[in-house]
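quick one, two chains, predict together pls
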Amino acid sequence: MVYFREKVVKRLDKTRLRDAILNAKERNAALVIKNANIVNVFTEEIVFGDVAIRNGMILGVGSYSGKEEIDAEGAFLCPGLIDGHVHIESSMAHPSRFADCILQQGTTSIIADPHEIANVCGADGIQYMLDQSEWLPLNVYMMIPSCVPCTSFETSGAKLVAKDMEQFLSHPRVLGLGEVMDSFAVTSGDGEMLDKLQLFADRPIDGHIPLLSGDLLNAYCMAGPQTDHECCNFDEVKEKLGDGIHIHLRLGSACRGVEEIMRQIADSKLPTRRMLFCTDDKHLENIREEGHINYILRRAVANGIPAMQAVQMATINAAETYRLPRVGAIAPGYRADLVLFDNLTDFNAKLVVAGGKVFAREKDKLIKPDPVIYNSVHLAPRKPDCLCLRVTGDMPIINAVQDELLTTLSIEPVQSRDGLFVPDGGLLKLAVLERHHDSGHIGLGIMRGFTLKDGAVATTVGHDSHNLVVAGDNDADMLRAIDLLEECGGGFVIVSRGETLARLPLPVAGLMSDAPLDDIIAAQQNLLTSLRSIGDWQGSDPFIWLSFVALPVLPDVRLTDMGVFDVRKMEFMK
Amino acid sequence: MVYFREKVVKRLDKTRLRDAILNAKERNAALVIKNANIVNVFTEEIVFGDVAIRNGMILGVGSYSGKEEIDAEGAFLCPGLIDGHVHIESSMAHPSRFADCILQQGTTSIIADPHEIANVCGADGIQYMLDQSEWLPLNVYMMIPSCVPCTSFETSGAKLVAKDMEQFLSHPRVLGLGEVMDSFAVTSGDGEMLDKLQLFADRPIDGHIPLLSGDLLNAYCMAGPQTDHECCNFDEVKEKLGDGIHIHLRLGSACRGVEEIMRQIADSKLPTRRMLFCTDDKHLENIREEGHINYILRRAVANGIPAMQAVQMATINAAETYRLPRVGAIAPGYRADLVLFDNLTDFNAKLVVAGGKVFAREKDKLIKPDPVIYNSVHLAPRKPDCLCLRVTGDMPIINAVQDELLTTLSIEPVQSRDGLFVPDGGLLKLAVLERHHDSGHIGLGIMRGFTLKDGAVATTVGHDSHNLVVAGDNDADMLRAIDLLEECGGGFVIVSRGETLARLPLPVAGLMSDAPLDDIIAAQQNLLTSLRSIGDWQGSDPFIWLSFVALPVLPDVRLTDMGVFDVRKMEFMK
């Protein structure tokens, strides 16, 4: 777990500012990183020298001596990395656990969107995330979720209108409006949506517009959003960039098509100054395994983007997009957030400095996380036949697309017994249960994408309303999985023939665990191993896919607690 | 004179926003610029096509038809140009006259610093400039002057502390804090200066730091200013850029050394994304003759900077530096500020669109300027011997440096009669009279830089306190020149042997004229012709030099109403 330092300082008070000015003038360094190859993202040069630090700020670059000195031995010193768009909740770790995990990789600032917890707990959830990140060594900036609920085609735990958001405008770490997913509401001029856009008109506003193009894209741009992290191909990147949109290249646990886009950016020499990196959703074990923003850097360079441009994308470009003061560069007056890399190809972090303190060595100052949101799972009692799905001719099938969150819709004949669907031939039953208001709403559907034999998998992480999603080949195991999640306040569970194969409790809003990182990762690995013992799949992790199958803004077809939803037509299927 | 349109809209209200969104979606254009080579500053491509406009905004780029169509015939359509730092007062024209002059050249937005009028009239002067620019087709953004007075080594008309500035923070066109010239106050941690920097800590803050370098530059950066427009050479540009400072390349009426800097930027391929253009101070006749920001574009390209980069510097780079929303690019949702150029070498403006209206054709909608500040010249009565300068050995001489505002100091023997200085051998007498508070303060000195024969030249434009500056070779003509300026409320005057050779009255704060552009320019030309008839000089216009000789932040030596000031030592000379 991470140490906690003095409160994150967004603005130096007068006394501290005077100290910092005089310390810079008089070369009074507390910490000096010596003999580094220092990456200057402004001049695009690498300069050999020292970086002097005090008051949590960079005093200067040049030749310095200081109270404490660290010899970089010629390694490459970069500004601390910035994740331009991330849902902490997707890591399933409490913010302090998450900070520990990504600081080790050199990420020192994140633009967090507490969209998930807001859909479960409303404004209280946003305030919870602000409070829980207040004393972290990681700079946690926040965007206020714009789509709670995401659409009117699902039941969320809370609803946020513009008036509910005003309370957050004066918070020093609140930057703007979070990803505006409901592009239909935007381009049709929906009043509630316009109120939110107006409230944040002078601030950064994140977009979320997979495949939007042409006149609809023009209308969306007119409304105010300034970023997009959903581009699926290079042409989409180019059109949106030309329309003034800042492009997030996203490489999280899912959506790995970005590597081809990187290659085409490199080949075409498309300007990258309005491009930045984000993970959006990335699981802890993936971060541990391959890295965080430093992994995206590695892949960008491997795909031909020059290292200097890639570092700019990971640092100053993100800072400029979100208008972050004093962040994203190694220069006097900037926050002393730094990462020392072995080289500019692998980007393995050798040393991380956050807010002027050497991260690894401060680990002993522990404070326990204080997770106060429990009991977010409120399910109505279930009848034994509540998961029965009546077959009335050919049925709509939700087909997973390998390595993508997109789905395709097919209409096919299916197996049935007594008029009820029987999972068979690669098809599974899928159910989404409303879990916030004891309403008893259950949406039922059929999916193809991974297989299960005599079992069920269930989760309360079901973007974006985070209802309970369960898939299985028999109702008994599905019902048992639901019971198990209700019992532990949410999380993930795998059941086979009535037995619990694996479970990861997520008591904080049914989304996050307050357990140590290693325990969370071990539980996740156990989930995957157990799933592999009764199931099969190609490409990325079925848990991620399940967590997005209820999100009615992603093409082509979804299942919510209200039923099977055709995203292209924006209507429920009969 | 310019037409006045509806109030400058910084933020669309809800109804207008909905209209704009739906018009973009439905392709309802009011005005279409057809068949243009459209410069996209984001993708760095030039695309042939049409630009659709309505509600003062760009609806989209592509193939459009509209109510009104203008055929660009393949000419190059750029975003309207942005002057990143300008003192309107230096044009000596009322804001509406100034707007008319620069809109013709394709400049559609300016970051104005009402530093001059604030030094004369205080907060009332700033409010006056905001009011007088409220209804202009030009986007006039303002920075609040930080140095009123500029230093404590001169007497200004007003003093502004942080508390006086708070009233302007909520004005939609006020961006940040104006050029922080008193770098000594900044780097020594002066309390009043820190209060101002703190007040604007989250906003753009302009710097002003000729030749500042090393530890002092680091300390200055720590304090918060983010731009500089005073770089004298390429090394200075490079050091400051590397420290995170946005670099203004300034090309106004004075300070023309920037062309060499442009050549070195082009040769070294130094990144230009944090560079922008400004005029700072440029006279109307120079704007008419050679252009405004389009002239800087022309010179940048002539000096080897690629046209696309140069256009970015003139548009989106400035918008990003000052965080201007929806300005600086041709993209959906951006303000319809556009300029059509013959080519990307000469940058002659063929058509200018400001706020969606074709500029030239709207000229008939006239409103008279409403200049309400008069009578700013308050001089104490003068005795006949008030300009006598006693010689006490070798005397300090203020030497002009050709084409620069810098001066050098020399200590030399001078001619005297009865112990009093007699102008001779290329030396002139120089006097600065306090003109705001009837104090009777007069600073006396000796200068070398231009010659006068039997005459005197005087002005109330004397940066930054705008006291009355007069130079001459005899006291009688100097005294007469002072009387003449007192009589007309300030301006410029040339006297020879008791006769008025030329006069330009500037009744608005002693700085600006409400007369038509042609009249102002004619009077300025008459001033120069008349000065030429009794004097001689090399390089730039002596009026500009005289207007800066009282500014005690420019090296090496100055004359204020308090005496001869050694800028290097920051003290008055004995």
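Residues 82 and 431 of chain A are 37 Å apart (CA to CA).
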